[in-house]
Amino acid sequence: MVGRLKIIVQRYKYPSKSLLFLLGMLFFYQSAYAQKMSPEEVVQKQLEAYNSRDIDKFMEVIDQDIAFYNYADGKQTMQGGQACKEFYSALFEASPKLHSTILTRTVFGNKVIDHEHITGRNGSNELIELVLIFEIQAEKIKKITVLRKEE
Q: What CATH number did the domain enclosing 122 receive?
């Protein structure tokens, strides 16, 4: 790549203008074709951060206006990035063996639906089974709806 750039610059009478043009084109190319995370990749990144209990990585994909809902009654259970960070920081601290295993994952547009088993929550050996519906906007999780298994 450097060799080609050198040859191109040498062909022009004003190499500084040519170099600026080429650098501008390179920047445009990288910006225009930069890889964006798919909704599934966003949720996978969140899952990996959850399983490693890394609050900073976890929050990288959480929208500041995130809302959590309980599917059964439609009630909002948590609102905002700060409340989310406080809740999950405390959970990660109290759950050294916390782990979520995805049983099934469905991607439907900007929604990702995970059926999961969670173990080690707050030091408990109890297996928790949930379905989570993640709604993604601009590579961030904007809404999570939680379905709990009725017994």
A: 3.10.450.50
